[in-house]
Amino acid sequence: MFEELSLKEYNDLLGSKAPAPGGGSALAQVAAMACSLIEMAINVTTAKMSPENANFAYLITQRDFVLRAKKGLYKLSNDDAAAFQRIVNGLGMPKQTEQEAKTRASELQKAYHKAALIPLDVMGLCRECIRICNVRILPLLNKYVSSDCVIAVDLLRSVARNSMLNVRANTALIVDSTLAASLNRQGEQILSEL
Predict the structure, then answer these.
(1) CB within 10 Å: which end of the chain, N or C, has fewer?
(2) 125: closest CA among 181, 185, 68, 40?
């Protein structure tokens, strides 16, 4: 959905009075852009390599992982907007009767849970991309594009840190304190591994 828009179209939508897409969707888009920087750095490097070079196939494999991550991030950008819309829909549900109020509360709890899982998934993809960049990709890159990969890693770290804000915003609304604490711990664990 959003990945089919031009940058200008997405940014215009982001800046509109519509509540979604919002920050979570934008963070996933930034992470996808970071993946594109990594992809470019690998493509430039391998373009100057012989396919027989031992690092050629290795870098192509790493690039394939980054491409899958980028695709996942596009999906998460869309999912984030849909999750927020589910919350908006839940808030709009009737609550006049006891049964309506109970149904509304249950739907909102499910929506908050789902909305907390999406930024956790964004964080997880960022962590994995950072790992392979630092350990597997950066040491092999052409020196003229290695800075692009460093920029990508910095963007991915920033996305992961800021995604934790969205995890906490949603877990703060989850009544089940054990579930909320578990989700927060998962996010903190990812942050500790960046």
Answers:
(1) N
(2) 68
3-state secondary structure of 16: coil
Rounded Cα distance between 109 and 97, Å, is 18
CA-to-CA distance for 51 and 34, rounded, in angstroms? 26
pLDDT over 90, % of the chain? 89
**Residue 10: per-residue pLDDT:** 87
The angle formed by the CA atoms of residues 42, 48 and 50, to the nearest 5 degrees, is: 105
Say whether domain 2-192 belongs to CATH 1.20.120.680: yes
Q: Tokens 């031009």 sit at which residue?
A: 6
pLDDT band at 99 (very low <50, low <70, confident <90, very high): very high
d(CA 34, CA 69) in angstroms, rounded, equals: 10
Could you tell me if 137 and 42 are in contact, meaning their C-beta atoms sit under 8 angstroms apart?
yes
Q: Give me 140's structure tokens.
A: 């092999």
pLDDT of residue 174: 98
